[in-house]
Design a protein that fits this description.
This protein is an alpha/beta fold. It has 9 helices and 6 strands.
Length: 222
């Protein structure tokens, strides 16, 4: 589990921009970023112990949201070399063995691409494939359309990696006009330093950052 170190001054400064102590049942969605085998399972190309540590907490949050009739959305980072969703040619050098392994693991149908089997995904949940780090920048646009249909205004964001796809999606959501809550102990990065750096950036400018127990109480009060 990460050792979370979010300075008091960052929390105080961030409240001026992003302070969301209450949730609205019909306007709140849980977005779980990339809890896939490649990032979570032991031996996964980009996996971390910290990502495995947050699995039970995310499952609790997802269950609490479903109990309130609120949507749960899972994203999967997806690689394709075909069509309009392909990454730029220069972005992934598959001559590098580690990059090639990651590209192979993230293709649809690969074992690495699948959500980790310990993630409790319910039949009514929404699963979105994204082709960029940020779910809102994904050219497929599926998350954007889904949130519009749901009428969501507040996004609770969890998952991995805090300093990559989580942070990018949270920043994009803020710029798109959503209220964003990132859960400090339901997100994960390769190291404590990367995790805390991302939380600091998010708290100061882009999101409210709270602990899971606090957010679970907020969900219960919806």
């Amino acid at each position: 589990m990460h050792r979370i170190d979010l300075p008091d001054w960052a929390v105080v400064r961030g409240r001026a921009l992003n302070d969301f102590p209450a949730l609205a049942r019909a306007r709140t969605a849980l977005v779980v970023i990339d809890m896939q085998n490649v990032f979570v399972a032991e031996g996964g190309v980009y996996a971390s112990a910290a990502a495995r540590d947050i699995v039970p907490t995310i499952n609790r949050l997802a269950g609490a949201m479903r109990a309130k009739g609120a949507p749960v959305i899972w994203t999967r980072t997806t690689y394709t070399a075909e069509g309009p969703w392909a990454a730029p040619d220069w972005q992934y050098d598959t001559a590098d063995p580690s990059v090639a392994a990651g590209v192979a693991a993230l293709q649809a149908g690969a074992e690495g691409h699948a959500l980790h089997p310990l993630m409790e995904v319910a039949p009514g949940d929404i699963v979105v494939d994204k082709y960029r780090y940020g779910a809102f920048a994904c050219p497929a646009g599926e998350l954007n359309r889904g949130l519009a249909r749901l009428g969501a205004e507040i996004l609770i964001i969890t998952g991995t990696a805090t300093n990559c796809c989580v942070e990018t999606t949270a920043r994009e959501a803020n710029m798109a006009g959503y209220k964003v809550i990132v859960i400090a102990d339901a997100t994960a990065a390769p190291t404590d330093a990367e995790h805390n750096a991302a939380l600091l950036n998010l708290r100061v400018n882009f999101a409210d950052v709270r602990r899971a127990e606090e957010v679970l109480a907020m969900i219960a009060a919806m």
